[in-house]
Amino acid sequence: SYAELSNHGGLSLFYSLYPHDLGKSQKDYTGQWITFEYKDYRNGGGKVLHTLRTIDFIGRLIRHIPSHYFNVIRHFGILASRVKKQYKEITDRVLESPPEVDEAPNWRERQTAFRGKDPLLCGVCGRVMRFVSSRIPIPLWRVKESLQAAFS
Question: In what order do the strands lie in the sheet with 46-53?
Fold first, then answer.
């Protein structure tokens, strides 16, 4: 729960956290209610007015304050979101596209190149062998257990 705030306590917290956005986002403040404006990117980026109780507004605001040891990484230079679109065409022209990588040969192709013959061709009939199933040998201790159980 949040501590009881004086009429201007919540607003001063808002001012201290977002001093650069005061004129743009806060539209109306009475001791109990605050009306602010934001861009609604889910619906085309249009501006929306929203009114909340001051204590609820502060609660929503506090959620976005990182904890003490949390490192906030901000992008700068050509990765900054404000200039990324402007520099995208330039960087696309300047930076070369990565070279196309040839597909790696599979096991059969590697073995054919290494041994000089196809490992999947049958030595008797010359047809291509295909995988049917594999057999995992039963461990000796399990065979021993089953024999002891059968003869005891």
Answer: 26-30, 33-40, 46-53
